Amino acid sequence: MRVLLTGLPIPSHLLPVMLPISKALQARGHEVAIATGRAVEESLDVDVLVLPDAMAPGQVGTPKPVWRPEITGPLELPLFDKGMTLAFANNLIDAATRWRPDVIVRETNEYGAIVAAEALGLPHAMVDIAPMIGQLRRAEQELGLTSKAKLVAGLLPEEWYPDSPPTRRSYRVPGACRTTEEPFILASFGSTTHWLLGKDSRLMEITVEALGELDTKAVVALGSDEMLARWRGPRPDKVLLEGFVNQRKLLGACEVFLTHAGFGGVREALEVGVPMVAVPLFADQPANAARIEELGLGSKVDAAGLTPAKLAKAIENVPRHHDMRARIEGLPMLETFADDLTASLW
Known about the structure:
Elements: E1 2-6, H1 11-14, H2 18-27, E2 31-36, E3 48-50, H3 69-72, H4 82-99, E4 103-107, H5 112-120, E5 124-127, H6 136-143, E6 152-154, E7 168-170, E8 184-188, H7 193-196, H8 203-212, E9 217-221, H9 225-229, E10 239-242, H10 247-251, E11 256-259, H11 263-271, E12 276-278, H12 285-294, E13 298-300, H13 308-316, H14 324-329, H15 335-345
Helix pairs in contact: 2-15, 4-5, 8-13
């Protein structure tokens, strides 16, 4: 079977799950390629069909240079853009016509595959990397199509999801193992936040100051090597500042995860049983943070009005015991997705 995976050209949309799925499909003997934009081509060690108009410059609105989440709260971002989706779809139709897949598998945020699959008469499936994104219905209305996914791959146990469509099946993504080291706190707001923040935002300074008030050691990922090089904020003795970190590896050893509640990081923390303090900043993060708190997996702190004292108190008082990790370990491994995808088509 020839399987074409699609995703927006954003590392966090492809590397943690879509790339492992491509490997799982290849291990079952299927031919696989990923269709996406050029920005991530070199990061994917699998055949890539480059879509020249996938999030091309000028398609996506420029970041708000004055955004200060500690004052105004989460940033409103356009999570669906019809023009960008149709440009992706047109490129995808051209690429798929040449590559001739039997099925298209898209990630949640990439809607062009719905259009392309309909136009080409192909079945499609979805890997739910952002189950709380809440934009599919609007996308379907504006596109005049309905997503008829043969299979929806969930990545956490069913209790995480507010709804459970009959085509959803949950799988376990290969992740880090829990290790025993000296306790520390990991703080990371993802790879996108740093270029959305306004130059006057004190979010990262507040974070470092809060961790400096605690007795536990901490590691803070500032988001880029550039931010680390020009950091002029506080440097508490017990707080290690980094540009990028191997988040999955560190989560296996830390005792609390301070996060913006992006679904990828949430999933990785739950896999190793790490409680979270969530400060949601944009996109699906407010919904993810609310779900974390509802299920007793951690606590939510509003970005607006955030202070070092408030954040330090939330970290000290976070619930530290939950059993989601055991339920995740009971899920079938991601390789099973390949078999279920085949079964869903015939």
